[in-house]
Specification:
- The chain is of the alpha/beta class and 406 residues long.
- It folds into two domains: 6-47 and 308-405, Aspartate Aminotransferase, domain 1; 53-306, Aspartate Aminotransferase, domain 2 (3-Layer(aba) Sandwich), CATH 3.40.640.10.
- It is built from twelve helices and 17 strands.
- A hairpin with a 5-residue loop joins strand 13 (337-340) and strand 14 (346-350).
- Helix 2 (50-63) runs antiparallel to helix 9 (295-303).
- The longest helix is centred in the last third of the chain and has 27 residues, at 307-333.
- It is globular, with a radius of gyration of 21 Å.
- The model has no long low-confidence stretch (mean pLDDT 96).
- The structure holds D-malate.
Length: 406
C-alpha cells in the first residue's frame, strides 16, 4: 500500500482554526437560536475596496476579449504590480528593493510554508512561542522536528515571548540557521522597535542565519518609531526575506494576494559549502510549482496603491484599530493585563486561566468566539487572543456580552 509522509503523524490532529471552526459548528448545531459574534480568526468583515472591485471587473472584461486576453502570466507576478510594490512599500520608506526581488503570491501563509522547499532539512530552526502555528506545522510536515511532547516539538528552538520581554524575544546565545519573526505580531500584537530588529539582523549576519520576516500586519502600525519593513534596518538585505499580504488591509482574505521579497544579496550554502543565490532558488521553486496569481487579482492589488485605494485602506485600518482600542480598554478596565491592539489588530489578554476553558466559557456563556492562547504554543497558556476584525456594533455587543459573562 502507498505510504503517507510519516511526519504528519506528529502533527496535532487538526489546524488550530479548524479545531475552533469545528467547536463553533457543534455549538451552533446544539444551540440553533443563538447568534454568535466572531472575534476569533483574523478574517476581515469590510468588503473589497471599490477601486479593487473596479479593477477586477475591468480585468475580467480584458480577459473576455481575444485582443486583450492573457493566458499564463509570469510566475513571479506581473511587472506592473512588482514595480508598484517596490516603489510604494519600499523605495518610499528608504528601503532598497528592486521590482524583480518581489514575488507576488496567493498568500502569506502559503509562502511561509512553501519557502521551506528551498532550505535543507538539517538546519536549526527558531520559532517564537507564542507563534502563528503555520511556521511550526510546516516544519513538522517537512520532517525538521521530532515528536511533540509537553506542548513542543523536539528539534525546534523556541524563542519565548513573555509579559517581561513585551513578547519580543531577544536573540539566543546559541546558533540558529532560520529564525521566524512576525511583527506586528500574530498572536500577541507586539511590535518590534528599530533597536530590537537591529539586534536580530546583527545576530543573523553573525550566524549566517536567515530571518523569515512576516510583516502581514505592517499596515496596522500606528507608532511612529516602529519600522514597517525589516529592510529599514541596515544589513537586512543580506539576511532577511519579508512576507506581506493584502488580506487584512484591503480585504483580500478570500481574493488571495500577497508577496514575498527575496533580496539578491542573500547567499545560502549548498551541500559542498558552495554559495548559491537564495533569490535564484526561490525563483526556480516558484517557476516549477506555481503559475502566478490571476491577472484580475493582481490588477485589484495594484488598485490598492491608487489614491482612492489608499483612502479606502486607511479607512479600514482606522476602523479596525478603533475596534482594537475599544477591546483593549474594556479588557484593561476589567482588570486584565492586556497587550497588542496598538500597532496590530490583535489584543492579547492574560486571563491567568486555562485558555481552552476560557474559550469554551466565552462560547457558551457570551456566545462570542475568541482564540485560546495555548493554540499558539505553550507560552500562550493563560492567555486569549481577541481579534478586532468585525463591524463596530458587533464588537460593542461582544464586549458587553464578555463583560457580563466575566
Ligand atoms: C489568524 O487569525 O491568526 C489569521 O487569520 C490566520 C491567517 O491569516 O492565516
Amino acid at each position: 500500500m502507498i505510504k503517507m509522509n510519516p511526519h504528519y503523524n506528529k502533527l496535532n490532529a487538526s489546524y488550530l482554526f479548524s479545531t475552533i471552526a469545528k467547536k463553533i459548528t457543534e455549538h451552533q448545531n446544539a444551540n440553533p437560536d443563538t447568534s454568535l459574534i466572531r472575534l476569533g480568526i483574523g478574517d476581515v468583515t469590510h468588503g473589497l475596496a471599490k477601486p479593487c472591485v473596479d479593477a477586477l471587473k475591468a480585468a475580467a472584461d480584458e480577459l473576455g476579449s481575444d485582443e486583450s486576453f492573457r493566458g499564463y502570466g509570469p510566475e513571479q507576478g506581473y511587472a506592473f504590480l512588482r514595480e508598484t510594490i517596490a516603489e510604494n512599500d519600499y523605495h518610499q520608506r528608504g528601503a532598497d528593493i528592486d521590482p524583480d526581488e518581489v514575488f507576488v503570491s496567493d498568500g502569506a501563509k502559503c509562502d511561509s510554508g512553501n519557502f521551506l522547499d528551498v532550505l535543507a532539512n538539517d538546519i536549526v530552526v527558531g520559532v517564537p512561542d507564542p507563534v502563528y502555528p503555520v511556521y511550526v506545522d510546516t516544519n513538522v510536515m517537512a520532517g525538521r522536528t521530532g515528536a511533540f511532547s509537553d506542548g513542543r516539538y523536539d528539534g525546534l528552538q523556541y524563542l519565548e515571548g513573555t509579559v517581561d520581554n513585551g513578547f519580543v524575544p531577544t536573540p539566543p546565545s546559541s546558533h540558529l540557521d532560520l529564525v521566524y519573526l512576525c511583527f506586528p505580531n500574530n498572536p500577541t500584537g507586539a511590535s518590534a522597535t528599530r533597536s530590537q530588529l537591529s539586534e536580530w539582523v546583527s545576530y543573523a549576519l553573525e550566524h549566517n542565519a536567515l530571518i523569515l520576516f512576516d510583516a502581514a500586519y505592517e499596515r496596522f502600525i500606528q507608532s511612529t518609531d516602529v519600522p514597517h519593513s525589516i529592510y529599514e534596518i541596515e544589513g537586512a538585505r543580506s539576511c532577511a526575506v519579508e512576507i506581506r499580504s493584502f488580506s487584512k488591509t484591503a480585504g483580500f482574505t478570500g481574493t488571495r494576494c500577497a508577496f514575498t521579497v527575496v533580496p539578491k544579496d542573500i547567499e545560502i550554502a549548498d551541500d559542498s559549502g558552495e554559495k548559491r543565490s537564495l533569490h535564484s532558488l526561490w525563483n526556480r521553486r516558484q517557476s516549477t510549482k506555481f503559475n502566478g496569481v490571476s491577472y484580475p487579482v493582481q490588477r485589484a492589488a495594484e488598485a490598492v496603491y491608487s489614491p482612492e485605494g489608499r483612502r479606502e485602506v486607511d479607512y479600514r485600518v482606522n476602523y479596525y484599530m478603533e475596534n482594537a482600542r475599544l477591546i483593549r480598554d474594556i479588557m484593561t478596565n476589567a482588570g486584565y493585563t492586556v497587550s497588542g491592539g496598538v500597532d496590530s489588530p490583535y489584543i492579547w489578554v492574560q486571563t491567568g486561566t486555562d485558555s481552552w476553558s476560557f474559550f469554551d466559557r466565552m462560547l457558551t456563556e457570551a456566545q462570542v468566539v475568541i482564540t485560546p492562547g495555548v493554540g499558539f504554543g505553550r507560552m500562550g497558556e493563560g492567555f486569549i487572543r481577541i481579534s478586532a476584525f468585525n463591524h463596530r456594533e458587533k464588537v460593542e455587543e461582544a464586549m458587553e456580552r464578555i463583560t457580563r459573562a466575566l
